[in-house]
Amino acid sequence: MGKEININQAQDEQMQINPNDLEDVVCNKCSSQCFEQTFLFKKLSAVLSPSGQETMIPLQIYRCADCGHINEIFLPKTSQPIDE
Ligand SMILES: [Zn+2]
Fold first, then answer.
1. What is the pLDDT of residues 28-75, one digit of tens each?
2. Which of 7, 22, 31, 61 has an alpha carbon within 20 to 30 A of 52's alpha carbon?
3. Is residue 84 in a domain?
């Protein structure tokens, strides 16, 4: 009949984080602490694509909610050396 919901188990181990131990991430440009999600698109060249066609790949990143600046730490690490 009645459903029993056990909520005790969820509270076994909580991560203990002291806010004072955390480092603020701020916009490099305007020092805002607010960020919003946005997407970058990368193009996978036809040569590398399994389908043999140029493919667009979305990458989710964060940008400053105030000025739109994207900190370098949020940028995906795609700086691979181009081998020839
Ligand atoms: Zn900013």
1. 999 999 999 999 999 999 999 999 999 999 999 999 999 999 999 998
2. 61
3. yes
User: Is 61 within the bounds of a domain?
Assistant: yes
Cα-to-centroid distance, 81 and ligand 1 (Å): 30
**80 within a domain of the structure (yes/no):** yes
Rounded distance from Cα 24 to ligand 1 centre (Å): 14
State which residues form the domain around 32.
23-84
Full-model pTM: 0.58
Measured between alpha carbons, how far is 26 from 29 in angstroms, rounded to an integer?
A: 9
Residue 14 lies in a domain: no
